[in-house]
Design goal:
By secondary structure, this protein is an alpha/beta fold. It has 12 helices and 9 strands. It has 2 domains: about 10-100 and about 230-255 and about 285-325, Rossmann fold; about 105-225, no CATH class. The protein has helices spanning about 25-30, 50-55, 70-80, 95-105, 120-130, 135-145, 160-170, 175-190, 200-210, 210-225, 260-265, 275-285; strands at about 10-15, 20-25, 60-65, 85-90, 230-235, 250-255, 285-290, 300-310, 320-325. The termini are close together.
Length: about 325
């Protein structure tokens, strides 16, 4: 029993790919690694707790993911039949354009032989995005090849970059010669660092072999299967400029970091006003929800979820309590 509600343990669902599958709701609501729908890799996305979120919202006709980021919540509302139609919005226009291009098949991303982005190429892609002459592949590189999908720092240090690139080419090289040359160079690296003492390099080798960016590109490729899905709409507006009339349920995943220049840069040059937001949130006539770690006392809290914080540089096992707030004091979770 969760939140005082008894779950039916299993139901039949049709996912967004048209596949019939059986879902264990109790596991979905609790399991930290439940992957309910494809999404764009994005710092702060809700993949780890998305099951708990979507079953805290009521079923609805039109759901607005107002600060969608990678889109995990919005896509999951469709995947688990919680919404008939979903609109994804984000003030980050290039990100929304990537969502749209993956949905309608107009992207320029090579999924058969995915491109490796060096540090130099990564920052060139960022510059093109900044100048407004970017492609969907540039935006994908921004998030798939950045540290923790933050979109600003390159994913690898200078030494690791070389060998991650070799492993990428071993797997994804377009020609036999390219793959063979990359493998030979990688074997030379292993020999130089002592194959006999491989146990000393076990952690390093595991790092080299774990090609996270390929897993992230695979998640993007999954989004192709949503091509021309009629239940999806996209827009890129400031949350205060949206007409909320069409939506019966609205969800805000607002910025968590507060006040620094780094936060301002991360939030697309905008300093987020939390006082203004919470007043606006409570005044909405729509049923609205927001994720945050804290909120003013006048904002009703309905759910608290423990979440591992992977971005902590000092504490690898840090667990934070993320909270879900609602703008209606009488709202009760039903399943």
């Amino acid at each position: 029993m969760l939140f005082g509600i008894t779950y039916k343990l299993k139901i039949m669902q049709v996912d967004i790919f048209g596949n019939i599958k059986q879902t264990n709701l109790l596991k979905l609501a609790n399991h930290s690694k439940q992957q309910t729908a494809p999404s764009i890799p994005y710092q702060g996305n809700k993949q780890a707790i998305v099951g708990r979120l979507v079953y805290s919202f009521p079923k609805c006709k039109h759901f607005l993911d107002a600060c969608c980021g990678g889109g995990s919540v919005g896509y999951s509302m469709l995947a688990y039949g919680r919404a008939e139609k979903v609109t994804l919005n984000d003030i980050n226009k290039p990100l929304i354009e990537l969502h749209k291009s993956l949905n309608d098949g107009t992207h320029d991303i090579n999924f058969e032989f995915p491109k490796w982005y060096s540090r130099e190429e990564f920052f060139m892609a960022l510059e093109r995005i900044k100048n407004g002459n970017y492609t969907p592949a540039d935006v994908a590189a921004k998030y798939c090849f950045s540290f923790s999908n933050g979109g600003s720092c390159y994913a690898f240090n200078a030494e690791l970059e070389k060998y991650k690139g070799l492993m990428h080419k071993v797997i994804c090289g377009e020609t036999w010669n390219e793959r063979r040359f990359a493998m030979r160079t990688f074997i030379q690296y292993l020999a130089k660092n002592g194959l006999k003492g491989a146990d000393k390099h076990e952690g390093e080798l595991q790092q080299l072999q774990k090609l996270q960016q390929l897993q992230q590109l695979q998640r993007l490729q999954q989004l192709q299967q949503l091509q021309q899905l009629q239940q999806l709409e996209f827009m890129s507006k400031d949350i205060y400029e949206i007409d909320y009339t069409p939506y019966d349920v609205v969800y805000f995943d607002i910025p968590y970091n507060r006040g620094t220049e780094r936060d301002k840069k991360r939030n697309y040059g905008v300093t987020f006003d939390w006082v203004k937001f919470w007043d606006f949130f409570m005044s909405l006539p729509n049923l609205a929800f927001a994720s945050e770690y804290n909120a003013p006392d006048f904002v009703p809290q309905i759910v608290e979820v423990k979440k591992r914080v992977n971005m902590s540089s000092t504490n690898k096992s840090l667990v934070a309590k993320e909270k879900l707030f609602c703008n209606k004091k009488d709202y009760e979770i039903t399943y």
